[in-house]
Amino acid sequence: MKTNKIIITSLFLAIGLILHQITPGIFFGIKPDFLLVFMILSVILTKDFKIAFITGIVAGVLCALSTTFPGGQLPNIIDKMITSIIVYAIYKNSNANSPIKLTCIYFLGTVISGSVFLGSALILFGLPAPFLILFVSIVLPTSVLNSLIGFFLHKLIITNPAIKSKFINY
């Protein structure tokens, strides 16, 4: 593993955690999961399975430490680990260089994360509302927000020559 990939990943996760903590609910209390967006961004930019797996574990622990969902600690760790592996596989096998494909990866990553989180929380502890209601009212709107934010962040990093030359030159 290259040190610069680890440093970039840790910076992305730190930025995602801070933004996730300070962002209020935008639309009926729904807020984008910035930590998930930055985790997916890190997985896409580093293109390394070991770092993707470690990123999923670290993002899961960070989410577990900051969750407000009752009993959401273990489901957060499970969902981020699984999501990071699946997003890595989707990105590696799709040759996603177009903006639409990248946006779809962010959308799918959030849907996968939300589904795994709700499913594991249902199995382990139970949910405060039915699965389908939580999925439609929280996961799908968050997926749309995350895909838009992920697309713009990805474009900002890739098209900015100062950032690209200093950090993304591997």
TrEMBL record:
The chain crosses the membrane at residues 6-30, 51-68, 103-125, 131-153. The lineage of its organism: Bacteria, Bacillati, Bacillota, Clostridia, Eubacteriales. InterPro entries: TrpP. The keyword NAD does not apply. It comes from Clostridium tagluense. The gene is trpP. Keywords: Membrane, Transmembrane, Transmembrane helix. Pfam families: TrpP. The keyword Transmembrane applies. It comes from the Bacteria. This is Putative tryptophan transport protein.
